[in-house]
Design goal:
The chain is built from 4 helices and 7 strands, in the order βααβββαβαββ.
């Protein structure tokens, strides 16, 4: 499945916010607890170093945000979050988003991409990241609180950007 990944524009906001909020409301992978209203979502997506939207047959199939993982002396490492529409998960959209984000991170001057909170139960993400060469550098026991209040471990992953590979 080939999708077209383009930079976010404010015109994408209704679909992007709906997809982002779909993941937030699942309560099993994103850290946010409250859905984003449209003005808040547009400001959020525009504030990122890059927000990529994956389009398939005129519909938003997925998106990612890319930004510095930290400030100052740690700002050369990026961080990203991904959302894929639940109706088409498992068809390769996530893989295309991650690969695009690695290239975009390099183009944006980042030397690496770090994930701070991959929930251990998100086996599709764990499998994909490891398949793409991300290294698990740590585990935070009970670092994620599910919607139901239960605690799950989170993994930290790292990958050099293509310019360093």
């Amino acid at each position: 499945m080939e999708v077209e990944i383009k930079a976010y524009t404010s015109a994408d906001c209704p679909q992007a916010a709906a997809l982002w909020n779909q993941i937030v409301e699942q309560g099993d992978s994103f850290p946010g607890e409250q859905p984003l209203a449209l003005p808040e979502a547009d400001a959020f997506f525009r504030a990122q170093t890059f927000t990529g939207c994956a389009w398939l047959n005129g519909a938003l199939a997925g998106l990612y945000i890319l930004h510095p993982n930290n400030i100052g002396r740690c700002a050369h490492i990026s961080n990203a979050s991904y959302a894929v529409d639940r109706a088409i998960r498992g068809k390769g959209v996530g893989r295309q988003l991650v690969l695009h984000s690695l290239r975009q991170a390099a183009e944006s001057g980042f030397t690496g991409l770090q994930f701070n909170a991959v929930v251990c139960t998100n086996q599709a993400a764990v499998h994909l990241y490891e398949q793409l060469g991300f290294v698990r550098v740590g585990t935070i026991p009970g670092g994620y609180r599910y919607r139901d209040g239960s605690l799950k471990d989170i993994y930290i992953y790292y990958h050099d950007t293509p310019a360093r590979v």
